[in-house]
Design brief:
9 strands; two-stranded antiparallel sheet; 4 helices; alpha+beta; 7-stranded antiparallel beta sheet
Length: 159
């Protein structure tokens, strides 16, 4: 999925933040399990108890957010270090079709140097408007916004 894509506001969710830190710290916080555990789950809601990431195309990501919970799993689709990371919950590792009962997304994280910091953009692509609306109603959007704020705060703590 290299190159630009067109965001559809009816099906896609976009968050953008300026991070007052160099791009390599943003990339590190996004791709290393020890960092992801610090920001991925909104703290008032719980914590990440396990995380596995094989950051390469076809590699696994697996995040468990509570004892006894099923992991959130997916597959990295595109990895351009310190520029772009694309993953989807519609595939498991090795590009195997996923089986799940959750709303699938494809997530695209991009980062570029902006002045003394990094412009970070997170986009979640949904299959259709109904999926996006259901995700918003479930609290997923609120949780994602909290997690991105925690992500930015965690990166600042790494400086």
């Amino acid at each position: 999925m290299s190159g630009p894509f067109e965001v559809n506001p009816k099906t896609d969710f976009v968050l953008e933040r300026f991070v007052d830190a160099p791009r390599h710290l943003v990339w590190e916080a996004l791709t290393k399990p020890e960092h992801l555990k610090e920001w991925y789950m909104p703290k008032p809601w719980g914590a990440v108890v396990d995380c596995e990431m094989d950051v390469r195309p076809g590699g696994i990501f697996s995040i468990t957010t509570g004892e006894g919970q099923e992991p959130h799993m997916g597959c990295f689709v595109e990895v351009v270090p310190m520029e772009r990371l694309v993953w989807t919950s519609m595939l498991f590792a090795g590009y195997r079709p996923a089986v799940f009962d959750d709303i699938p997304i494809t997530a695209i994280a991009t980062m570029e140097t902006s002045g003394s910091g990094t412009r970070y953009v997170f986009t979640a692509l949904h299959r259709n408007e109904a999926d996006l609306e259901e995700n918003k109603a479930s609290g997923w959007q609120e949780g994602t916004e909290i997690a991105i704020d925690q992500f930015v705060a965690h990166i600042k703590s790494l400086k």
